[in-house]
Amino acid sequence: MTAAETLLEGLDEEQRVAAETLLGPLCLLAGAGTGKTRAITHRIAYGVATGVYAPERVMALTFTSRAAAELRGRLRQLGATGVAARTFHASALSQLGFFWPQVIGGTMPRILDSKGRVLGHAAETLRLKLDTATLRDLAAEIEWRKVSRLTIDQYADVIGTRPLPVLLDAEKMLALHGAYESVKDERRQLDFEDVLLATAGMIESEPRVAQQVREQYRFFVVDEYQDVSPLQQSLLDLWLGDRQDLCVVGDASQTIYSFAGASADFLLGFPRRYRESTVVRLEQNYRSTPTIVHAANRLMKGRPGALALHAATGEPGKVEPTITTYASDVAEARAVAQQVAERIAAGTRPQDVAVLYRVNVQSAVLETALTDAGVSVQLKGGTRFFELQEVKQALMMLKGAVVGATREPLFKTVSDVLRSLGWTQTAPEARGAVRDRWESLNALMGLAEASPPATTLREFVDELFERSAAQHEPTMSAVTLATLHSAKGLEWDTVYLVGLNEGLMPITYAKTEAAIDEERRLLYVGITRARHRLHLSWAKGGSARGGERRASRFLAELA
What we know:
single chain, six-stranded parallel beta sheet
């Protein structure tokens, strides 16, 4: 068996078809937990190993820095070094920085970290005083317009169909869009959407730019293709030119960013657009027990593009998902916290448990209840791991230690550095800031212990800084608290889905059939995060002033 053939070992029949289809248009309809990342990384590695792909001519595109870092890591392990795995924005920014001096001349404008300050100044030019929440909503609407490839005049034609912030009517909204663009241009600044628009404009208008870009990259893979926007699709088309060596991977049932301009139409319409395309359906779910898979299927039955998942696990799956009703949000939070604490006491690792909810405001009562129950929590969306003070300090000290590094084992050097910062082999018994600091340093120690035996300190430190840049954070020994949106792409042994009542799931402002369907898909994402145990719950009452609530309409389909 050749080295290339070993890359196909362990793939199921559909994954193997995908991995061996190296040329031409390929569409992978990949359900939750079906091993899509495994399929595409082995496909790329197989293409490189067989000589069909030159690694430097392959571009793997995804939507988050973390996902791109994971792709690069897996490809390295499979021997496919040199393959570019990036987000759409990172790819476009790299090209824009290279071509701007040649095409426009001078240095490239500064990229905005956030639209907030510019929008505030734009509002002032119109003598409008807007609060922070309205500015955030305004920024989101500007992003939607731009990724939908609408000019302000074109946006004026559809503004009547858009949900606008309470304080802004159509006339003020259009004026703010124009003022924002003017202020930004006066300051020689670009926002993230401008990066894609400018890159697309250069390729479209400059034949030599188009030729150079297309000579550099020949083979494209797009992960999470259901999340692509019209702007990203148009840029992808320009990168491809008249070629068709494109592999797309996605699941229409996990389209949860329609509000931000994402559209599953590109995924579902792929076979019509590319008549010669190969379509492979990945429906063997390797993540969840049969009972959880059945619940997910029931929720999505009959929905456009829904895949029929089949549980591949050999477990009997006798632990049925539970649905529990509580008297109030506080009662729900305390009961869930108690169950989590008991599960951890029985031997479950904290990092194998997640509590998921619809909106950020739900996290406070849950975090309090879990902390009161003696459970460490990691709030996804809070301070990022590599931005923690103790982690930044540890990275600087490890970087300094590289200079005088000896040949002693990696774990010994790392442990010495971390001990100087207060890390010990045994966790502090008390909860609070001291324990949180220890957990952070212990996570770094865990990365060192998981490194290959021959890893040098320099290689380890380089990997840490690469992880930091890509926001690829290590696993902490804590229960995860996360919104359903931020849980996408992750998985846990035990998942608690809380607050499943009308008004939260579906959310109050989901009025149209399309919006309700998006809420359904969001719940589907939450359900399919669970490997072994799934607990769903809702509360009849919130506060003393609130009336009695109703259970989410989706629970009736899952009961």
